[in-house]
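Troubleshooting entry. The earlier prediction with 1-hydroxynaphthalene-2-carboxylic acid gave an output that would not parse, so I re-checked the input for stray whitespace and re-submitted. Clean input:
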Amino acid sequence: MSINESITPEDLAARRRLQADLERYNCRVHQPDDPPVFTRDPKVDMQSVHWRWSDLAPLLDRLGREVALAADGPRRTLRLHNPGLPRGTTHTFWASIQVINPGEVATAHRHSANALRFIMHGAGAWTNVGGERYPMSEGDLVLTPAWAFHDHVHLGAEPMIWLDVLDLSLMHMLRATFFEPFPQAEQPVKSVPDDGFRRFGSGLMGPPGLRSASANPLLPYTANMAQNAVRQAAGLPPDPFDDVILEYRNPVDGGPALRTLAQTLQLIRPGFVGRARRHTGSKLYYVMRGNGSTTVGDQHFEWRAGDFMAIAPWAWHRHRGGTEEAMLFQVNDLPALQALGYDREEGAD
Ligand code: 1HN
């Protein structure tokens, strides 16, 4: 029985009269036609979506040729838009593919949103995050934690593309939006241009005794380091849901690399048939190579290299291997849910 069914016609009339008198005091009482406060489980507006590389590639090519990158303007990006939402890829984060042409500078700014970049194709672009400067190569993950100034400059010969993910909708919902341009197009580089990587970049060792830090001091997670790690994990018994999966970690405290967004690297091998699961939180996959398929509710996505896939909260989903081993990069908002105690998960039998 819903709450509304217990409302009698007399009570309904009383509620309507009271509401009319309450309006000018900025108060309300529950009305039967109000949207429900509680549902038994999440009723989700976000849709699960599959974007195919065969569609994205020509669009990115046009974007790079037809759209200008202005100083102090927005980046040149193709946004992965969720048709169930007014904005964003999921209800917490935005994913977009940035195109940068040879010689271009994406000028320095900072914002309260946490951001990450995952390099899809090309070489020769450098990013400067808070004075630390790193080259970006295919398969690298580079973090831009909240409020760090960042600029990108492309010194290579061919257009370059990468995935950008920012926790923008979460930031908007929490009314915590701040933005500031840097006074120059590019930030100066610190005397040690790759300090964090020199201290923490092995992934195994760090300065003795350091157990906490206000923000993750490691900005780049190189393709080599991450892919070697996941290859090593492939010698374990398969994970029933994910086959082979490892998370990118904050090297100081072992937590997620960004406070609100987690990233994983995963192998799904031919013949793998995953168990179905559902959980709160949303996630996005980028297929780096190989192929496979994922069933989400009554949708079936046959994915291959270059494709993206967004999974809505509380949707049953399961993965299957394809004809070639697949490697997938994933971004999810589980750290935010875990921090607030809203994380829940169920696995099918
Ligand atoms: C942004 O600042 C970057 O800094 C990339 O490269 C993508 C998408 C929306 C809003 C800000 C960047 C972005 C973005």
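This one parsed fine. Residues 75, 77, 94, 96, 98, 106, 150, 164, 166 surround 1-hydroxynaphthalene-2-carboxylic acid (CB under 6 Å).
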